[in-house]
Specification:
single chain, 385 residues, Rossmann fold, five-stranded parallel sheet, elongated
Length: 385
């Protein structure tokens, strides 16, 4: 597609001349002969470059420039000011208004063409990258202790086993248990990252704070040091971490802890999918019900319910009662695996890797595959496995 250039000049002859010349160089040209028209065309037509005359009757070029810069939609478009004025002060005024380059009339067509070409080339390298297209999956417990961390870890490990490239991050500052499960007890990369100014939170910074488990799984950890819970960090920093991690692995998996704090209420909006974990009992069910309202106010169906059994089935709320109470299907029921989880934790290896044939492991793998199928069914979705 040819680059589109908007020429703004109240002099029709000038418009025609410059327009023809640029068309001959292969550009698509649109024109405006007044300031207001220039502003509306800039936002409706999204030109790649604007050539802007300074002296126009309704609104001068400086004002047009300022208004284009004030609007986030038109702010990134490069602007070349084009005028008969030659005084240094006028050039300064142009740059102050936000112009990127300045040309004085009369200009040789070859000079205009080369300035346009250089400006477009520069703007291509500066154009902001597309927003991250990755996939974020948040794990959240209806209440504490239901098995959220264990599930998040084992789903991430199942993906790593399948040759995927997941990253796993722990947002439970001050009570992070992922590190303890993986044998990195005191790692506090998440707190280190969140302590930085938001502008510095980039994949390169996060990469240096992640640890790599022997399975190849990359994790950004919170520690269990109580002081860490007192770290004051902004929503923006936390959102920055989520967005950066989405570009670093597919999927990016987040342990959001239990319940919804002010931070996790904001973070859940960054998640493409949410896995909500509960135990089959009345208390967890009531809490899950409350959370679902918050997570799916619009009935968006991005929440996947997983029930983890910790005790014999005679002491549990039956699954159909859970589905009825929540108005949603249960995606997986994970069996109790006390002894095996204990052994796996002792060796710092997730159970799906430590004992891939255990019932627990096959349930996790099946759930991971099911999650994958549903992600794929989303518009623009891609297979994970
Ligand atoms: N399927 C399971 N069977 C038996 N115990 C489990 C199971 N899943 C988790 N647990 C145990 O429950 C406790 C809490 O698990 P954890 O994953 O830390 O929960 P949460 O993150 O929700 O607080 C741990 O001791 C863990 O080993
Ligand atoms: Mg936990």
């Amino acid at each position: 597609m040819p680059d589109k250039i908007l020429i703004v000049d109240d002099d029709i002859d000038s418009l025609k001349l410059i327009g023809l010349m640029l068309q001959r160089h292969g550009y698509e040209v649109i024109a405006a002969n007044a300031g207001n028209q220039a502003i509306s065309k800039a936002s409706s037509e999204h030109p790649d470059l604007i050539i802007l005359d300074v002296m126009m009757p309704d609104m001068d070029g400086y004002e047009v420039c300022r208004r284009l810069r004030a609007n986030p939609d038109t702010r990134p478009i490069p602007i070349i000011m084009f005028t008969a004025k030659t005084l240094v002060d006028d050039k300064v005024a142009g740059f102050e208004a936000g112009a990127d380059d300045y040309l004085t009339k009369p200009t040789h067509p070859a000079e205009l063409a080369s300035r346009v070409k250089a400006m477009l080339a520069r703007s291509v390298t500066q154009r902001r990258p597309e927003p991250a297209k990755g996939l974020a999956i948040g794990f959240v417990g209806a209440k504490g202790g239901v098995g959220t961390t264990t599930l998040a870890l084992n789903v991430a490990a199942a993906l790593a086993l399948a040759g995927e490239n997941p990253v796993l991050a722990d947002f439970c500052l001050g009570h992070g248990s992922l590190g303890l499960l993986l044998g990195f007890g005191h790692s506090h990369g998440m707190a280190n990252v969140l302590s930085k100014p938001t502008s510095e939170i980039r994949p390169s910074l996060i990469d240096g704070e992640m640890v790599v488990h022997q399975s190849g799984l990359r994790v950004l950890l919170s520690s269990a040091r109580v002081k860490e819970a007192q770290l004051n960090y902004s929503f923006e920093a936390a959102v920055g971490v989520v967005r950066a991690l989405k570009t670093m692995g597919r999927p990016a998996i987040f342990d959001l802890g239990s319940g919804l704090s002010s931070i996790t209420s904001r973070l859940q909006r960054e998640m493409d999918q949410i896995v909500m974990v509960l135990e089959p009992n009345h208390v967890a069910l009531t809490m899950a019900h409350e959370m679902l309202h918050e997570l799916e106010p619009d009935g968006s169906r991005r929440v996947h319910i997983v029930v983890v059994n910790h005790s014999p089935s005679s002491l549990q709320t039956p699954w159909h009662e859970i589905e009825q109470a929540l108005g949603q299907e249960i995606r997986a029921i994970i069996s109790a695996a006390h002894d095996q989880l204990y052994q796996a934790t002792k060796t710092s290896v997730p159970l799906v890797i430590y004992q891939p044939n255990a019932v627990f492991s096959s349930q996790i793998m099946k759930f991971t595959e099911d999650l994958n199928m549903r992600v794929k069914a989303e518009p623009g979705g891609e297979m994970l496995l």
